[in-house]
Amino acid sequence: MVGQAAHRLAVMAERTTNAPIDHTPEWAALRHHHERVAGRHLRDLLVEPGRLEVLTIDLPGIHADLSKHRATPETVQLLIALAERAGVRERIAATFGGEKVNTTEDRAALHVALRAPADAVIEVDCRNVVPDVHEVLDRMGSFSRRVRGGDWTGATGERIRAVVNIGIGGSDLGPAMATEALRSYADPACTYRFVSNVDGADLHWALRDLDPATTLFVVASKTFTTVETLTNARSARRWLVDALGEDAVSHHFVAVSTNAERVAEFGIDIANMFEFWDWVGGRYSVDSAIGLSLMLAIGPESFGELLEGFRLVDEHVLTTPLSRNLPVLMGLLGVWYVDFFGATSHAVLPYAQELARFPAYLQQLEMESNGKSVTLDGQRVGFATGPVVWGEPGTNGQHAFFQLLHQGTELVPADFIGTIHPNHPLEAHHDLLVANLLAQTEALAAGRTADEVRAEGVADELVAHKVFEGNRPSTTLLCDRLDPRTLGSLVAIYEHKVLTQAVVWGTNPFDQWGVELGKALATRIGPELVAGDDSTASAHDPSTAALIERYRAARH
Ligand code: G6Q
């Protein structure tokens, strides 16, 4: 094992210190190939015999169709050769193996351990972390059962009717997205709210109609130093104490964190703290204790199914050849569009209202992970990396930004995500929804030629306006049903897609220095807005200094 690990690290080092990826023969081969095939139209590609078999992949509960991509079998082969050159297999294995792949923070990135079966052995610094993971899961399970069953009550003995998660970024987006996505699995007797923004409006409106006696706060923060979260948690604590007194806190506040000291300092009993570890990145943490609010909503059994969905994809990514490996192929197709077609954005379009927050969740997962411009060895990249990720649920988007997808000058690859079975009884709505999804992917691919437009009797002067070039690529992920297992699988697919791309680009998908900068900058300006301080003008650029002064003059 030690020998294998050393070999993997040596391979990683060689990949990252040798020629940049865009100086390799595999990159050059893709460039030449692009010149040859970029002009080919999806109308023609799509009807090539055998294409569907090669470019569709079935995972339990998810059918993935990659055939509407501007790729030939040769494109896929060349992309896989690029992945091999970059060491995708080795880096995935190193990540799963607990190696410290997050080199700039000297940490493992071991979210896969969060869903490993109880008998698995995954070591960090020679310690098997799997028993720790399961111990916390068990504690979360029994706590959730007590709250859901009414055995854990508020200070006045009443059962909990509202759960308010206070966290931000990775400590908010995952549980908020998943609680909405799985709302049909949630206990309807309880209300679930997520407060993240330091804008007081967020907390104010979240608490407005809640009763302190029946409200449970989950304060979720990996570091327990994040200003927004601590500010919201302090105000929530005051709201509770004003109504029920200081002794009520231990009945109404629990914490999720890696930092027991800070939790205790804040005034939450560490007996009411659910732990996770520094090897869990914020945006990779929905399946850790950060998912506690979600577990309170859907129950430990459904949470277990969510973990099973993650695990299925982990096994798939580890054991499937790259040519049939869904997250790897999605990642490589992303590289193909960004680096060879010049695409600068990627749309995520769930045709499932319950997935309304999924684009925002992926925005963080993808952009915080792959918004990087230096390689692991600190060299500036000479090529484009992560695209802007954005999206909204269909069909709403069709009445808004889809115009640009169809006829704009930008090439925007898109993921369409839908389900065969709805989680509601309005079946006729669902057929209409799915019909729209399929029609959009078809229209984006095929377009409409001038001849077709003319054949419809359109006046000559309008023909150019009504032509659709088509050739706009998309992935379709058609799920059986949006259930906990499928949601877990969907998230894992994107986690491994992101890793694949980072390996190709040679960047670190697990650090976030840009986010850390934001935290530091706000702390600096904050006091200047309140206290009259003449040094402000010299410490900032003229625009910022004037804005600070304007705000201060009007407010204080
Ligand atoms: C995630 C990021 C970031 C983080 C938040 C909250 O990968 O690092 O979004 O999750 O800044 O941090 P805390 O959990 O420490 O409060």
Number of strands: 13
What kind of sheet is the major sheet?
6 strands, mixed
Residue-averaged pLDDT:
94
Structural class: alpha/beta
Lateral strand order in the biggest sheet: 1-2-13-12-10-11
Question: What keywords describe this structure?
Answer:
six-stranded mixed beta sheet, 556 residues, 50% helix, five-stranded parallel beta sheet, 23 helices, binds glucose-6-phosphate, alpha/beta
What does this structure look like?
The strands form 3 sheets. A 6-stranded mixed beta sheet has the order 1-2-13-12-10-11, with helices on both faces. A 5-stranded parallel beta sheet has the order 6-5-7-8-9, with helices on both faces. It has a two-stranded antiparallel ribbon with strand order 3-4. It is globular, with a radius of gyration of 25 Å. Helix 1 (about 1-15) crosses helix 6 and helix 8 (about 175-180) runs antiparallel to helix 15. By secondary structure, the chain is α/β, with parallel strands linked by helices. About 50% of the residues lie in helices and about 10% in strands. The chain has helices spanning about 1-15, 25-35, 40-45, 50-55, 75-85, 90-95, 130-150, 175-180, 200-205, 225-245, 250, 260-265, 290-320, 325-340, 360-370, 400-405, 425-445, 450-455, 460-465, 485-505, 515-530, 535-540, 540-555, and strands at about 55-60, 60-65, 125, 125-130, 160-165, 190-195, 215-220, 255, 275, 345-350, 390, 415-420, 475-480. Bound molecules: glucose-6-phosphate (G6Q).
